[in-house]
Every structure is written in C-alpha cells, then in structure tokens.
Amino acid sequence: MKFLSVRELRSQSAKIWKELPQEREMIITSNGRPIAILAAINEANLEESLSAFRAARAVEATAYLQRRSVEQGTDRIPLDEIDAEIKAVRGQRTQ
Fold this sequence. Notes:
Blueprint: E1 2-5, H1 6-11, H2 13-23, E2 25-30, E3 33-39, H3 46-72, H4 79-94
Parallel strand pairs: 1-2
Antiparallel strand pairs: 2-3
C-alpha cells in the first residue's frame, strides 16, 4: 500500500490518478500521520464500495464504544439498571 503526503497529492495529482487503479488504495498523510484513504472505484462498484466503507465505520464505532465502556467500567452495569435508566429517560420525554 502506498503512502503519500497531502503535498504530493496536490503536486502530482495526474500521476497519482494514473497509479490509483493499480494500487487500489493509497493512504494520504499530513505531517506523517494518516488522515485519509484514497480508493479506486468505478460506477459499477460505487454502491458496494460505499456500503462496505460505511459498514467498516460502524464496526469501528462499535469497537470504540466497547473499549470506552470497559475503560469507564460501564460494561459491568447490570441489565436491570440499564433498563431502569432507559425507562426513566423515556418517562421524562413523554412529559
């Protein structure tokens, strides 16, 4: 997988667009840190690519929430307490 800086993307864009179909994806960096993924797609696979990307982001978000729950200790809250909290909040919304 090829890494390139934002500066390279700006200055060599024509070359990069030509290379992208063979590379399939490239990582864009800013100050040496990855900030974006540039992926080759076409009209035929646009919807599938978007769907796969969105699914991957959902998995990433779920994993993040699970890690935070463990860090904060909220992963050990009993289900009956969770249900009671949900019920209380829903009761406040109806008022």
